[in-house]
Design goal:
One of its GO terms (molecular function) is hydrolase activity, hydrolyzing O-glycosyl compounds. This protein is of the alpha/beta class. It contains eleven helices and ten strands. It has one domain: Alpha-Beta Barrel (TIM Barrel), CATH 3.20.20.
């Protein structure tokens, strides 16, 4: 018992020694705007990893270091998959992947976003299955918070992309079950809520009937918008208007996932549309994370298919998407030091 206690004490002090303060300290949300520890308006700009259960090797210190020092990013998003050998079937592997990213982010002094990465698998039509899904999310976030509660580096994304057939009322039921558990463990952690139709943004029903309640439980929340440079320009304009409408009501929006090509693959890179949306996000001080730092053979991947996480900072391994993002991110002041 004494040996175990000593190991815990040593691990605790190593955690303190290795921890580096993130650029803006502990985050909060005021009238929908992300703020730093000093109350200043801030932005997070970073990168999402691919599904944890399939490209686990990218959940590594090398990948997190690349986000910080090669791409000038101040946040890494850990897309912890739920189905198909993800958390619902192999919780220990999923938690291990989340911890690897969180620890690396803390050591590098950037933020980490732990995402319960369900992609329209929960259909909200079976009450027993929905309850099981909700309880699994509670268990997942409880495990994460028991390890990282109070960390100034941490943010949580509660539901990546709800199925289009899930009504907003069902999403609210889920959030009203999960949020109180999170707030009991960490009253101050910023949480991000997935929106209807696979997180295409805070629709009118969300804006008119947001998740609300006591300040303890429901403050420090944002709503998700996922953006891809689709060929349907009307859809992009609608998404921009959603953001403006939400902001006018004091609701914050985090673009936790965006891509520089159409969501329907195969598709070519669309730099002009991407640059336009970067401009829009920066004009409105939105935070955002690019999909994805991986060698997956798809247009959005930042690394070429034959390269490994250890090669993520090599120029020869940059995809066209990687070059586009790196050149843009290097122009931003993201508070990065120590590279």
């Amino acid at each position: 018992m004494l040996i175990i206690k000593n190991i815990f004490i040593i691990s605790f002090y190593l955690y303190i020694v290795l921890a580096v303060n993130p650029p803006y300290g502990r985050l909060s949300v005021k009238n929908g705007q992300l703020t730093g520890a000093n109350g200043q308006a801030v932005q997070l700009r970073g990168i999402s990893l691919w599904f944890s259960q399939w490209l686990t090797q990218w959940y590594s210190p090398e990948a997190v270091k690349a986000i910080k020092c090669f791409y000038n990013g101040n946040v890494v998003r850990a897309a912890i998959g739920t189905c198909c050998s993800g958390y619902l079937e192999n919780p220990s592997a999923a938690i291990k992947a989340a911890i690897a990213v969180a620890d690396a982010a803390i050591a590098n002094g950037i933020y980490f976003l732990i995402d319960f990465h369900d992609v329209a698998n929960e259909k909200c039509t079976n009450d027993a299955e929905f309850k099981k899904f909700t309880n699994s999310a509670i268990q997942f976030f409880t495990t994460i918070l028991n390890k990282y509660k109070g960390s100034p580096n941490m943010l949580l994304e509660l539901w990546n992309e709800p199925n289009p057939i899930c009504p907003w009322s069902k999403l609210k039921e889920y959030y009203n079950a999960v949020l109180p558990v999170i707030r009991k463990l960490d009253p101050n952690v910023v949480t991000i809520l997935g929106t209807p139709y696979q997180s295409t943004g805070p629709s009118t029903e969300v804006i008119n009937n947001p998740v609300s309640g006591t300040n303890l439980i429901y403050n420090r929340i944002w709503y998700t918008l996922h953006f891809y440079t689709v060929t349907d320009t009307n859809h992009i304009q609608q998404q921009k208007q959603m953001v403006l409408n939400a902001m006018s009501k004091g609701l914050g929006v985090f673009v936790t996932e965006y891509g520089d090509a159409d969501v329907n693959l195969p598709a070519p890179l669309n730099p002009s549309s991407m640059k336009d949306f970067w401009k829009f996000m920066d004009q409105n001080k939105l935070s955002y994370a690019k999909w994805s730092l991986s060698n997956k053979d798809e247009v959005y991947s930042l690394v070429k298919p034959y390269c490994t996480p250890a090669q993520a900072m090599q120029e020869s391994c940059l995809s066209d998407s990687g070059k586009l993002l790196r050149d843009f991110m290097k122009t931003q002041n993201n508070g990065i030091t120590g590279c």
